[in-house]
Structures are given as structure tokens and as C-alpha cells.
UniProtKB/TrEMBL annotation:
Domain (CusB-like beta-barrel) ranges: 253-324
Family: Belongs to the membrane fusion protein (MFP) (TC 8.A.1) family.
Name under which the protein is recorded: Acriflavin resistance protein
Superkingdom of this protein's organism: Bacteria
Pfam families: Beta-barrel_RND_2, BSH_RND, YknX_C
Native source organism of the sequence: Cognatilysobacter xinjiangensis
Residue ranges of the TM segments: 27-47
Length: 417
């Protein structure tokens, strides 16, 4: 057996056999497959680009140091009113009507209360009667005087003709002069009675208690039927006032500053006042004056501070904390900016960038804003340029977050807004 020869025959190529079937596909089928893959990939890429990214946001807080200087001294005091009056009647009398209530605003001259006017009316009626009596007396004396003057003139011609005695003439002249004196007395009595009438009318007017100036009633001290008097009559049954009025436009703060620190306070110095009732409300104020006297017991000097804001929430006797500030900086040195969490600032291409959220809901997107940073204040960073305050910035922005990308605010942040 020639095994080697048989093996060589098997390795020989049979030229007469038909060619095997081809496994290659047409070219256009391959192109279609490639195009389909590209379309699907592009759609998936576009879908991934349009999908909103869930982010957490925080609001940038506006800050500025224009005029907000450091405090050189802190002190405590109370709100006081420069114009405050307990209004009383000028006379003693029984209250007939009270027309005020606590919290009511009154104008100058407003009728706060009235007293029983019976006695005052009677006095005025009597004075008016006296005026009428003196005036009628004047008319009677004037009539008699006219007759006496005519009689004296007639006897004057007769005495020259020696038809009557000189004694009769002298008697007529004396009667005329006496009536002239009576007329002058009657006229003076009429003037006095007229003055008494005016006093009686003032007495009636004194039964009406009016507001001396415009303000707000903070206390109502009398009721109808009570006796009021400008002076205390002793005991607990006589009131000395109708009510207390405060001019709210005259409110200011009085603080006691220690003698050791009074040299830091100057008239016109800027002040920041915070009421104990509203600790988050900073009221711009100014030093009015330093009272030139010291309290020996407390070793303090009283300082008057004017409030530059008028508000209904400010009432007398409120406690206040006052911070005396340095002088305001010139306008050229004023800076403004914002305060943002440190997690909102990231580095992109060597620049500090924050992503600001614009729009709401499904239409929200982000805009990259380059910022200039300043001081680090706790967990926040001062932004000197690029933000003005009030913007919503993304916290911990992802690396793949791009300018103009759609975002969706996390539910927790949406509720906090």
C-alpha cells in the first residue's frame, strides 16, 4: 500500500469541480446597515441631550459694603416720644362724653371729651344779663343827659338877660355834669360786664377738651360720670386726665453710653438700630445730640438717636439695640456683589464659573456665568463680579453639565422656594 501517494492525491486541487457558493452580501445592504446604526445612535444622543438633569439650587444673596461700616460701639436703650401729652380739662367738672379710644388717630383740635356745662352755661347767662342791664342803664343816662344839657343851654341865655337867677343856672350845670359822670360810669360798667361775658364764654369752652396736636391715643383715662380736675383732689375718685396722646412722628431712641466710650460718639454719626421685637429689621438712624450731663450712679451719658424710617410697628418704650457705625465710605469705594454657597462655584477652563438657572418647570435651563470671587465667609464665598444677588445657582454642578442644558430642580429645592 502506497500510503504517501494516496495522501498526495487528496491534497491535489480538483479543477473540474464547480466553485463553492459565495457568502458576500451586496454593497448596498452594508451601507443601509451602517446608516441605520448612525440614525439610531444620533437619536439616542439627541435624546440624552434633551433629557433634563435633576439639580439642587440655592439663591445668591445680595451684599454690599457701601455705607455699611463696622460698628465702633454697641448700646441699648428705649424708644421715646419727644411729643407726648396727658390731656386734661382746664376746670374741675363731671365728664359728660368721651370720644376717644386707644389706638385712635386724632388731629389737632379734635374734641376728645366734654364736661357737664350746666354751671358754665348758667354763669354765661348771668354775664349776658349783666351786659344787657348796663347797656340799658347807659341809654337811660344818655336820655337824662340830653335833657340836662338842653336845660343848661337855655338857662345860660336867660341868665345873661337876667331873667333867671344865677343859682338856677349853676344848678342846671351841676346836674348836667353829674349825668355826664353817670354816663361814663355806666359805660365802664358795660365794658366790665362784657369782659365778664367773655370769661363766662371761655368757661363754657373749657368744658370741651381738645387735642393739642395730632397724634395717636395710647391711653384712655376717664369715663362718663367721673370727676376730672387739672389738679389731684386726693383720693381715687378724681381723675387728672382724659387721655394720653403721642406724636408718632417724634419717636426717637434714647441710649445710655458709658463714660469710658462716649468719646467714640459724635453728633451726626450713622447708627443702625434693631428693635428687640423685630431682631431682623435694621433701621438706619443718626445721632441727634449728646445730652451734656452724666448719671453719677450709672456712670453713663444719654445720647439721642433719630430714626430715619417711620413705621407703625415702632411704638414708645420698645427696647432697642443701637450700633454706632463709622462714617460712610465715598461712592467710588463702594462695592456690591453677592454671597453664594461654595458648592456652587466650579472651575471650568481655568475660570471660576457658576451655573445660573433660568426659567421654571420643564423650560428651565442653565447659563454658565464667569464670576470673580472674594472672601470666604463660612460655607459661603463672596462674589465680587458676575452676580448681583437673587439668582438661582446650581449646587455641585456635574462635570458634564453644559451651558444651555435643560435642568429640573430637585423636589426639595422647589418646595423651599
Amino acid at each position: 500500500m502506497n500510503t504517501s501517494a494516496d495522501l498526495l492525491k487528496e491534497l491535489r486541487i480538483d479543477r473540474s469541480a464547480p466553485p463553492p457558493p459565495s457568502n458576500r452580501r451586496p454593497l448596498w445592504i452594508g451601507l443601509a446597515v451602517v446608516l441605520g446604526i448612525a440614525v439610531v445612535g444620533g437619536g439616542l444622543f439627541a435624546a440624552s441631550r434633551g433629557r433634563a438633569v435633576e439639580v439642587q439650587v440655592a439663591e445668591a444673596t445680595a451684599i454690599g459694603n457701601g455705607g455699611a461700616s463696622a460698628s465702633v460701639l454697641d448700646a441699648t436703650g428705649y424708644v421715646v416720644a419727644r411729643r407726648m401729652a396727658t390731656v386734661s380739662a382746664k376746670i374741675t367738672g363731671k365728664v359728660r362724653e368721651v370720644r376717644i379710644e386707644e389706638g385712635q388717630h386724632v388731629d389737632a383740635g379734635y374734641v376728645m371729651a366734654t364736661l357737664d356745662p350746666i354751671d358754665a352755661d348758667a354763669q354765661r347767662t348771668l354775664a349776658a344779663s349783666q351786659v344787657a342791664a348796663t347797656r340799658s342803664q347807659i341809654g337811660s343816662v344818655q336820655a337824662q343827659l340830653r335833657e340836662a344839657e338842653a336845660n343848661a343851654a337855655r338857662l345860660s341865655s336867660l341868665v345873661r338877660q337876667q331873667l333867671v337867677s344865677k343859682a338856677q343856672y349853676d344848678q342846671a350845670v351841676a346836674q348836667r355834669d353829674a349825668l355826664r359822670a353817670q354816663l361814663a360810669t355806666a359805660q365802664r360798667n358795660a365794658s366790665v360786664s362784657s369782659a365778664n361775658l367773655r370769661i363766662a364764654e371761655n368757661g363754657v369752652d373749657n368744658t370741651v377738651v381738645r387735642a393739642p396736636f395730632a397724634g395717636v391715643v395710647i391711653a384712655k383715662a376717664a369715663q362718663p360720670g367721673e370727676i376730672v380736675s387739672p389738679l389731684s383732689a386726693g383720693g381715687g375718685f378724681t381723675r387728672t386726665g382724659i387721655g394720653t396722646i403721642v406724636d408718632m412722628d417724634s419717636l426717637e431712641v434714647e441710649v445710655d453710653v458709658g463714660e469710658s466710650y462716649i468719646g467714640r460718639v459724635k453728633p451726626g454719626m450713622p447708627v443702625e438700630t434693631v428693635l428687640n421685637a423685630y431682631p431682623d429689621w435694621k433701621i438706619p438712624s443718626e445721632v441727634i445730640a449728646i445730652i451734656p450731663t452724666a448719671d453719677r450712679g450709672k456712670a453713663t451719658v444719654k445720647v439721642r438717636v433719630a430714626l430715619k424710617q417711620k413705621d407703625a410697628r415702632i411704638v414708645p418704650d420698645m427696647g432697642a439695640r443701637v450700633s454706632f457705625l463709622e462714617r460712610e465710605q465715598p461712592a467710588a469705594r463702594k462695592r456690591t456683589g453677592a454671597l453664594v454657597p461654595a458648592a456652587a462655584i466650579v472651575e471650568r477652563d481655568g475660570k471660576s464659573v457658576v451655573y445660573v438657572v433660568e426659567g421654571d418647570g420643564d423650560k428651565a435651563d442653565v447659563k454658565a456665568a464667569a464670576v470673580t470671587t472674594g472672601r470666604t465667609l463660612g460655607d459661603d464665598i463672596e462674589v465680587l463680579a458676575g452676580l448681583s444677588g437673587g439668582e438661582r445657582v446650581v449646587l455641585d454642578p456635574p462635570e458634564k453639565l453644559e451651558d444651555g442644558a435643560r435642568v429640573r430642580i430637585a423636589p426639595g429645592d422647589a418646595e423651599s422656594e
